[in-house]
Amino acid sequence: MIHTHRHRAKSSEDRAFSGPVADPENRAAHGNICSVDTCSCGATRSANVNGRHVEQGKWVEPTDWNATPNASRKRPMVTLTMSDAGLAQLDRLAAKRDEPRGRVVEAALDALERS
Ligand SMILES: [Zn+2]
């Protein structure tokens, strides 16, 4: 998909640090908060922030897979574009099973393959 607009943060959310978001890394920025901006088109941009240290990632289109630049990362980071209703359903399932979203999606794929 080609976007002709400039990505802009429509919303921003702080998450726990979960790995590098830029290449080269800024290790001083690791270990605290990962601030994730989301554009209206679904693209996201992550920044690891630790005090005055910032590791600023690039905008990642919602269809990019393996977007995390660190190849040594064992589990790839995947960005999915979902409807609000689909995401709410996924969250309900994840809460019911007490599992992360990714695990619920994997289980659904397993079930599809078996059907
Ligand atoms: Zn955008």
Outline the fold blueprint.
Elements: E1 11-16, E2 33-38, E3 44-50, E4 53-56, H1 84-97, H2 101-114
Antiparallel strand pairs: 1-2, 2-3, 3-4
Number of discrete helical segments: 2
Within the largest sheet, what's the order of strands? 1-2-3-4
Structural class: alpha+beta
What's the total number of strands?
A: 4
Structure characterization notes:
- The protein is an alpha+beta fold and 115 residues long.
- It has a domain of 64 residues.
- 24% of the residues lie in helices and 20% in strands.
- The protein contains 2 helices and 4 strands.
- It has a 4-stranded antiparallel beta sheet with strand order 1-2-3-4, with no helix packed on it.
- Strand 2 and strand 3 form a beta hairpin.
- Helix 1 crosses helix 2.
- The structure holds zinc ion (ZN).
- Zinc ion binds next to loops.
Question: What's this entry about, in short?
Answer:
This protein has helices at 84-97, 101-114; strands spanning 11-16, 33-38, 44-50, 53-56.
Keywords:
single chain, 115 residues, alpha+beta, 4-stranded antiparallel sheet, 2 helices
